[in-house]
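Re: folding output
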Amino acid sequence: MSSTPQQRRGNTRQRIQDVALELFAEQGYEKTSLREIAEKLEVTKAALYYHFKTKEDILISVFEDLTRPIDELISWARDQPRSMETKQGIIRRYHSALIHASPLFRFMQENQATVRELSIGETFKERMVALIKLIQEPDFSMTDRVRCISALFTMHAGMFFMQNVEGDPEEKQAAVLEVAIDLVTQAHHGAAGK
């Protein structure tokens, strides 16, 4: 789906993104300067400017790169039959995309005010609305609609809050995925039982 941070390190542009995102998460977006990013990379500001003119340019490029699998998922899902299996597939693929984009989601959690101010906040909201429409049906009850929305946000919460729960990281990720799939499956069965 997406490259891991270790795979991304060879490319200068990607190294800039990784370091900037790390500093944004540690210090906050507003408190991080281009100079600090250049210093951490051990490059000149001119070298940094060759790739990015502003912090917002860096953040937007990170967002575009790390959310590309979500865009691909939405595109794929629109061409699939609206079955329970497809909805479960959407949940599985979204879970994988979240894992690969975890540094971005950590940044978004830590810098919510900045995300709201920048264009990335609106485009992320659009992606969430598209995914919700793909896993629920117009005739779902309000309870089943809430289940579908909760399935996505269960995975978001799992990205952040499961870090504080003791246990094997893979087992925790599998549990989060299982709960999200259960919610979508319940919604589908609830609608089918009408």
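--- second protein (sequence, then structure) ---
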Amino acid sequence: MIVITAPTSQIGSKVVSDLLDVGAPLRLVARGATKLPIAVRDRTEVIEGSHGDASVVDRAFAGADALFWLAPPDPTKTLEEAWPDFTRPAVEAIRRHAVPRVVSITAIGRGTPWQHRAGPVTASVRMDDMLMTSGAAFRGLAMPSFMENIVRQAGVIRDRGMFFGPIRSDRKLPFTATRDKPAAAVRLLGDDSWSGQEEVLVLGPEDLSFDDRAAIISDVVGGPVRYQQISFDQFKQQFLDRGASESAAQGYVDMYRAKDEGIDNAALRTR
């Protein structure tokens, strides 16, 4: 039995569909079962509730052979509440039920000079450290930023021919696509031969600057699109205006500053 958390998320839903395609037995932890497609509900066991709830994960992890763990980002909470505190009940349940293997979605940054000052990256590394204390075999799928994040600015690109961010325009960074994370997770969840605890990098095929991305978008849409750097103060205010907590808003500033300084470039791409 494979337990999947956040099964309605962009990543989790693809993990579910790919595992169902190969006939894997699944137990899904979902806040609302009705958010799951009927075809998925009919072929899986559903535990309704939050996977940050001790009673929910205690039921969900009983008899599990593997666990897919994704802590849903919640910018209204502090970083501590959104990652380590949310994960604490799961760690106890993994230990109690001796879940043998855990695959977690995490971020690049472990072992770098920025590990302790990169906002959500720092919080996700702490979360993984907690998961590893359970004694389960562990793989943390470490990622840079998603390519799809730029879709949030589709309207601005359409109306103004621009998109914005706090990272300098010529800084080349790795990116990944949301579909790459489920593919890596499914390979691990369907394989019971691995052991030990380590991170697995999930990187796109090449590093791109924001100027590079602007050129690609311009080519695709058939018109000029350019990238405009904004200040970190402006970037933080955007999060606050959308209802983020002070902790989360500052955390994202710290993370993007770390990216601008090279935290993601510390990950070496291999075959």
